[in-house]
Amino acid sequence: MKVFNWSFGVGNDPVVPSEQAKGGFYKKRSQPATYLYDRENGKDYKICEEKHSGLYVAEGENPIFAYEKDEKPYLGQKDWRHDQRFDLYLVDLRNGDHHLLAKELTRSVHWSPQGDYLLYFDNAKLSWVVVDPLTKQQNILTDVIPFALYDELYDRPNPAPPYGLAGWSRDGKNAIIYDRFDIWVIHLDEIQKSYCWTKGEGRENNTILRLLDPGRNGVSVDLSRDNKVEIFDWKNKNQGLGNLSANGKLTPLVQGNFAFSVVQEAKNTNTMLCMKQSYTDDRDLWVCDGQGRRLRKVTDVNPQQCNYKWGSAQLVEWTNYKGKNNQGILYLPDGYDKNKSYPTIVTFYETHSSELHIHPVPGLSQAMIDIPTYVSRGYVVFQPDVYIEIGKPGESAYDAVVSGTRVLADRGIVDSCRIGLQGHSWSGFLVAYLVSRTDLFKCVNIGAATVNLTSVYTALREGSGQPNMFMFEDWQCRMGATLWEDLDGYIANSPLLFADKIHTPALIFHCDQDEAVSFYDGRNLFLALRRLQRPVWMLNYMGQGHFLTSRPAEVDWTIRLQQFFDHYLKDIPMPRWMKEGININERGVDQKYDLVE
Questions:
Q1: Sheet containing 219-221: which strands, arranged edge to edge?
Q2: Beta-carbon neighbour count of residue 385 at 10 Å?
Q3: Distance between CA 81 and CA 73 in Å, rounded?
Q4: Against a cut of 0.85, is the pTM above it?
Q5: Taking Cα atoms as reference points, which of 119, 137, 136 lies closest to residue 128?
Q6: Whole-number Å distance between alpha carbons of 71 and 81
Q7: Nearest to 406 by CA among 393, 415, 397, 395
Q8: What is the pLDDT of residue 96?
């Protein structure tokens, strides 16, 4: 008989047996301590403690320092923390001395190219820190840079990431780092001489500037010559390419209403291979010279697109219920006439506005609607950005989504009587919350949603065997507290407990082999709405997971989702499967797609 031992204490395995069974943790043989033997004096020094994750020796010919990461104090916290924390030690290879630099770090640590300096991002200080190993002096870069070096828009409870380390100067004496908009050169020897290479032009123009790095491997920067930079206009989402001189003059080379990226630069010729796209223009390859001139299209990957009604995409802005500026993308069908009434679907997942110029490739629905398909069929589609206040995910979605939808109705862009709502997974939970708060929407599709936070908090994720606690305390669900620290918040954000407030006709999508969100959540919401005698349907593609991977299932789901929205938003007759249901004995025999007059 096999028995799982679920008793845990200090010093025991850091993850629960269910996660061990899924391969999430393998108990390794004890990692022995590492010693360095000095042949001159016949002594040995411990340079890496037992069970530490490893020793990272500085670059250079004769390194005398290394750093060591100690994860042991945090191994038992994996159930409720998303990132693996570690303590950082500086190790002197000459005598084995260990010096604690910082605790509870989560981001990468970097040696400078010659191993003269150590660079790490401190979660507590929200800053990059430069360490001189010889003197152990630590310089906090926000002491010399008056702007945040961490993602200011990051809205999850775990530590916000830095904007990034671009690379190092060719001589290894400077680090190149980013703030939200600009590029900074950090003098490692004399921190006070650090300067903004782009002279604040990015911040002044609300434009994000980043050094061109086609391989995304980090760059070696020659500060004495011109360098290319990627340009992203935060306000209108236009992208392009610019030239940054050694003295900080920025000259735009390519810029417009599109997404633009350099795929590869030729080594021996002044030629670049680029990709340019927009909502209406597919992801074609273009060739140009090193200054972005003589731009020439070399592929035509989707010529048949001209035969379809593609529609258009535009950025919309409004003030949400928190009084903050909110953005979103509005997709309009060809020939849109503001004097006519159009069916509208509101769909979202996190934020979308930065994707304004990304070309969507049409396809079958695996969960969410396929936007170009619906737009081509005469739908308006609205994708609002949703940023979350920690502890108030549902309320935050309400402030953004409902405010944006009402603004579009007030502006006469959409018909307030013909608006549907759709979400899957994280946004599936949020749309379930929304329809428990408002009757604005005529119908809703709720996909693979967590609907009772109080029970799911300690449930296991089927795919990994990991408890869900980390999702709520430290990651996407954004509660930022334990169930017992914020019981009222967990209850308030559990739409199942307020199912009696849901009057919107609902189509629930949840499959029985969902590896991320328990199938029982979808079924529980269905049963609650059924008991309340509300119009509700549930589709379970047996054997499928969080997303559909079977083509027959994708085809079927695409058809039924479309029929559901068409019925409520286009007044098309109800299909027979919605009218009669599908008995267990009819599965695979009678799909009941035909419409009932």
A1: 195-196, 183-187, 174-178, 165-169, 219-221
A2: 21
A3: 13
A4: yes
A5: 119
A6: 13
A7: 415
A8: 87
